[in-house]
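sanity check this chain:
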Amino acid sequence: MSELKILKERERQVHRNGVEAFSMACETKSTAGSVSQRACVFCGSRVVLYPVADALHLVHGPIGCATYTWDIRGALSSGPQLHRLSFSTDLVEEQVVFGGEKKLYRSLIDLIDQHAPAAAFVYATCIVGIIGDDVDAVCRTVSKEKGIPVIPVHSEGFKGTKKDGYQAACNALFQLVGTGKTEGISPVSINILGEFNIGGEAWMIEEYYQRMGVEVVSVLTGDSRVEKIKRSHGASLNVVQCSGAMLQLALMMEKKFGIPYIRVSYFGIEDTAQALYDVAAHFDDHPDIMKATQELVKGEIKKIQPDLRAFKKDLTGKKAAIYVGGAFKAFSLIKALRYLGMTTVLVGSQTGNSEDYRILKEMCDRGTVIVDDSNPLELSEYIIEKEADLFIGGVKERPIAYKMGIGFCDHNHERKTPLAGFQGMHNFAKEVYATVTSPVWQFAPSRDKGFMDSKTSLL
C-alpha cells in the first residue's frame, strides 16, 4: 500500500513507537481540512452535564445544536427522565439580528413552570457568542424569580475543542458544589467524578463501595441529582474516573474545600481492582475496609475467570486498534486486551495530553502507531497497514471498522451495555470475542490478502 501523506501540520501528532524519536504534539486545535473526529466545545459540555437527571437542559441557539446532542449519552436514571428531553430556544434570523435574550427568558420561565426542575443549565452555542446575548444576566434574573439555580454554560463551539467544553461543564457544576448541607455524611465517604452511568455502571460501582463500607455522596454526573451535587463538598475523597472530563472539577474542589483526589479506572480486572484498593488504602485507619475489598475482588474475579480463559484461547495473537476520547481510557483498554492475549497496533485519543502520550509510549509495543486527534483517512490506512482484527472506538469510528471488514467494539457514550467493573470486563471480553471471531469477515474484500498487498490507496 502506498504511504499515507499526512498533512504537514499533523506530522508531529503521529508517532511510530520505538521507530522514531518521540515528540508528540497535542492539546491543539484541529488542523483545518483534516476532518477531525472531535466534537465541538458545546458537545463536550453536554456529554458531561447531560446525565444530571432532575435538571433542565436548555440549548440557547439554533435547533440543530439541540438535535445534534439529543439523548447524546446512554445515561440511565433511577428516577427522573427530564434530562432525556431536548429543549432549545430555536434561534432564527429575527433573534440573530435583534438578539435572543427575550426568547431565552420566556423559554426558561415556561419550562421551569411546566417541569419544576431542581436546577437549569443554559448552554451558549456559537451563534450566541457571535451576537453577544448576555446569557449570565438572563440566568440571574430567572434564578431570582424562580428560586432555583439557573446556570449559564459558556460552551460556544468556536472557542476551542471538546476538551474546553469539559472545562465549561466543570465550571457550571462548581457553581452548585458547596451550596448544600453536609450533615450525616460519613467520614468514610467519596464522590465519583467522571462516571456517567451509560449502561448502569455507576450502580455497579456504588454497590462495590457499599460492600466495602464506603459511602458514595455523589456521582458526577451519572444518575445524578442536583441536591447530591450541592452537598458533594462533604465527602472525604474525590475519585476521578474520566480525568479528561472531570479532573478540573477535582482540582477546584481540592483548592476550595481541601478534598484530595485520586485518578482511577473501572475498566478491566487489573484497573478495577486497583481502583478499589486505592480507595481502601486512603481510609487506612479503617482496616476492615481493606479486608472487605480483598474479599470482594477475589469473589468477583472467581466468577468471570473461567469464561475469560475460554475467550483468550481464540483471541490470543489477534490485533486491535483503539481510538477513544480520553487517553486514560486507552490505558485500561490496552491492559484489558493484553489480558485476553491481544496486542494493540494502533492507539489514539481526541483529548490526550503530553503525559498521557508519554505513558502510552511506555505501554505500547515497538511499531505501534500512536495518534492524536486523528481522522478517518489516517485511521483507515493504519488499520489496513497493521492488519488489525478489531477496532475499538465510538459511533463515528464504527463505519470505518465495517468498511475495513474487521470487528468493532463500541466503547463510547452511545452504548447500552455496561463495560465497567468485573462484570463489565466479562461483557467486554464477550463482545470482543463475538465480533473478532465472527465468520462474516471472511467475505469482506479487505480481508483478502491480495487486497491487503495491493498498491491501491485510500487517498
User: Anything to note?
Assistant: Residues 454-459 have pLDDT under 50 and may be disordered. The longest helix spans residues 287-315.
